[in-house]
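Annual report, structural modelling task.

Input specification for the protoporphyrin IX containing FE complex:
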Amino acid sequence: MKNLADHDSFVDGVPHDTFAQMRKDAPLHWTPGFVGAKGFWSLTRYADIMAAQRVPEVFSSAQGIRIEDQSHEEYMARRTFQETDPPEHTITRRAVNPAFAKPVVTKFEPLIRELARDIVAKGLQEHEFDAVDKIAKTLPMLMLGRILGVPDEDLDWLVTRGDALIGNTDPYFTDTVIDKVDTESYRMMPFRSPAGVQLYDYADAVLRGDKKVSEDGILNRVRGQIEGLDFKNFFCLLVAAGNDTTRYSIAMALHLLATQDGLLQELQKGTDFETAPDEFIRLAAPTLHFRRTATQDTEMHGQTIRAGDKVLLWFVSACRDGDAFADPNRAVLSRAPNRHMAFGQGGPHVCLGMWLAKLELRAVLQEIATRVKTLEPVAPPTWTRSNFICGVKTLPIRAHLK
Ligand code: HEM
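The model returned the following structure:
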């Protein structure tokens, strides 16, 4: 079994065999402490994670949601509403929810389709290309800009900062690799990252009115409802959460279309565009886990989780649990119902951006299905060195057009 605390265990992709073994033999698994961090429990079965999600008063988000141990001071400096529990969480969630609701996002559909058409057409001008760079990256970036209401010319910069936050364990994305260099001076910043400082400055400029944002964007809508540090952390959350996850889901879809026999033809039947996005996102499960902290002693699988212990909910493992999904490692585009947990379903923090992510993926899939005859891998994908995010860094691919 690979050590889940070690980011290097993920450099060749998610260690799905380890998760399968844990689901079978060690459904409540303890990883001992390591340099700079306390040990943690792992939950890997769908049913157990769902049960934990339902009781946030027992498995709390209010002491941090990543493996890292934070002092109370650090937690207070960096927290967003994602790091709070009901009823406190519910107040902010209600305030921001309308901006992400399905009907609001559906209004973006014509724009998303237009952008997807343009991006896929440009990407396919080359016979062989890196599908992350040429296709998967651009649509989430442009849509993040529209949702936030920031100018297009800032997007490249914002996205590289977001990548540095999410990829803070991989030298591909940052010089300040969290487990390799001393990040003490950034401990009060999002993801202990210098990119957090730069994003705070940008958010400050928005708050002061020095950076103009569009009236109908989220930043303008929540300005006034969320203030000061809370606004800055909310901004960082959106830059981090709203971009890479969708990019990696699109990349995983393209990877599977290039490698799973007959999948592109199945997609081209045109009957599964409603269900296919969820199936690809289930298999991508880009946010591998989120952490909770036990608020009381709890018995599970013959062991005791003590109050104060960290408990990781491995959504990536739940998404491939054979007790919840038939043929769990294969993409079945017509899968319905598909109650996967890649969006953290079952708990109060279920992803706010899921309608947007699904719409973007669907638009890309439709363009690929229309234009491409076959997709082939040119080289294996490269993966982010991270036990938090399943990131496809590069995906060299060859496309034969219709
Ligand atoms: C395929 C793409 C995406 C995946 C797989 C994903 C995954 C997740 C997961 C697992 C959670 C739950 C976290 C927890 O339990 O603590 C979450 C929450 C969240 N996501 Fe996403 N996400 C995606 C796209 C997006 C997008 C596009 C946005 C915004 C534009 C977004 C914004 C958020 C926010 C704000 C939360 C916090 C909600 C809360 O705490 O109430 N996500 N996401």
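Residues 61, 65, 81-82, 93, 147, 237-238, 241-242, 245-246, 249, 281, 286-287, 290, 315, 342-344, 347, 349, 351-353, 356-357 surround protoporphyrin IX containing FE (CB under 6 Å).
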